[in-house]
């Protein structure tokens, strides 16, 4: 009978402890709890702790430096029980007062519970921290994650600290803020890594800029944007467009381990921006554009003709003369005129020509001087040697269009020009020719010999006319005059 009464009393006591209507039952000061924000008042935030228990936390703990609230109804919180007197009072860290302060600090040290303190001053090697009337010391290296260059900026600030040591009955208390920041960083790192996958777009902040790119904080972890992934436009140094502290949007391109086994994250800024082809390029085949040589290769030169828009000048399109390597005649940074040979929308490629741009410029000058040229037999004009064959020279006639060529057969060369045509007429040589025939297929026959023969006839005719003007006459006249002169002498 007595034993049954005891069991009933124990059951009643257990029920009393578990009764959710009893404020603070089941909660002890310093305990870690989690809950959901159910109401936000003027000074207090109410948190549902489950089991019909509700806690209260001072709203001031969730205001940023500008006084703005940093949470909303429905947010999940991780807090500590500050007190169970007159309800469950919660806090980000432990707050306490009175003679039991040292005991609470010791409990906080053992339980790794953060405590709130205010930085009250700076001394040699660190900071004085006031923790509910107890003076503690925080080494300068433990106040932040990064090097502290201006200690005075922390004076007056309230932070959460981890108690590291308590000596001399509380007269020597060592605390650290850095430990808590590292734990928070590691927590964010785990959360970030869970969502960081190739193809994901994130917000980040530039932490530092180096010669080869920029490092971006994407939520407790750093990734790197290589200089080639900053912009579609070619830039010489990342500092031209980025600086530490800039907020940027990035796309995760690749994740791979480095030599130490840590994850290396490759990011891109330009992947989020449309390139010149996506925006729509305005150049057309046949256009002459001015650009800058961005880099040279064995097979040609890349020319930037607009922000993020490059084309290739193949080595064969640099000059009519043979070019063994682009660097022999071009330099990176040179400004050149190029003609658009081909626009490949599907492959996003531009084929350009420097030599064709020169020809088209010359053609424009010819037209300006003599009007629109017409193809007619008997015309004498300038042409450019394009190729040499055993049977003659192919000569470009820029006055009539980029693709108009004529053949200057070997037998139509001037006598002084016969011989090794490759040496006498290298590609790109400008020569004077005459159109002597155009067949039904539009093939053009050129000649220098006809021009030379005409010049000889003209010189002879001039000589004859000059003889008439000076009274020389014919040979018979000359001999007759000589006979008359002899008779006079007799």
List keywords for this structure.
490 residues, alpha+beta, OB fold (Dihydrolipoamide Acetyltransferase, E2P), 5 domains, 5-stranded mixed β-barrel, 8 helices, 25 strands, 22% helix, 36% strand, rod-shaped, disordered N terminus
Secondary-structure blueprint of this entry?
Blueprint: H1 2-18, E1 32-40, E2 44-50, E3 53-58, E4 76-83, E5 88-91, H2 101-111, E6 115-123, E7 126-131, E8 134-139, E9 158-167, E10 172-176, H3 178-195, E11 201-210, E12 213-217, E13 222-226, E14 247-257, E15 263-268, H4 276-279, E16 288-297, E17 300-306, E18 309-314, E19 335-344, E20 349-353, H5 354-370, E21 380-389, E22 392-396, E23 405-409, H6 421-424, E24 430-438, E25 444-447, H7 449-470, H8 475-489
Parallel strand pairs: 3-5, 8-10, 13-15, 18-20, 23-25
Antiparallel strand pairs: 1-2, 1-4, 2-3, 4-5, 6-7, 6-9, 7-8, 9-10, 11-12, 11-14, 12-13, 14-15, 16-17, 16-19, 17-18, 19-20, 21-22, 21-24, 22-23, 24-25
How would you describe the overall organization of this protein?
By secondary structure, the protein is an alpha+beta fold. The protein folds into five domains: 21-91, OB fold (Dihydrolipoamide Acetyltransferase, E2P); 101-181, OB fold (Dihydrolipoamide Acetyltransferase, E2P); 196-272, OB fold (Dihydrolipoamide Acetyltransferase, E2P) (Beta Barrel), CATH 2.40.50; 282-358, OB fold (Dihydrolipoamide Acetyltransferase, E2P) (Beta Barrel), CATH 2.40.50; 373-490, Nucleic acid-binding proteins (OB fold (Dihydrolipoamide Acetyltransferase, E2P)). 22% of the residues lie in helices and 36% in strands. The protein has helices at 2-18, 101-111, 178-195, 276-279, 354-370, 421-424, 449-470, 475-489, and strands at 32-40, 44-50, 53-58, 76-83, 88-91, 115-123, 126-131, 134-139, 158-167, 172-176, 201-210, 213-217, 222-226, 247-257, 263-268, 288-297, 300-306, 309-314, 335-344, 349-353, 380-389, 392-396, 405-409, 430-438, 444-447. The longest helix has 22 residues, at 449-470. The protein is rod-shaped, with a radius of gyration of 46 Å.
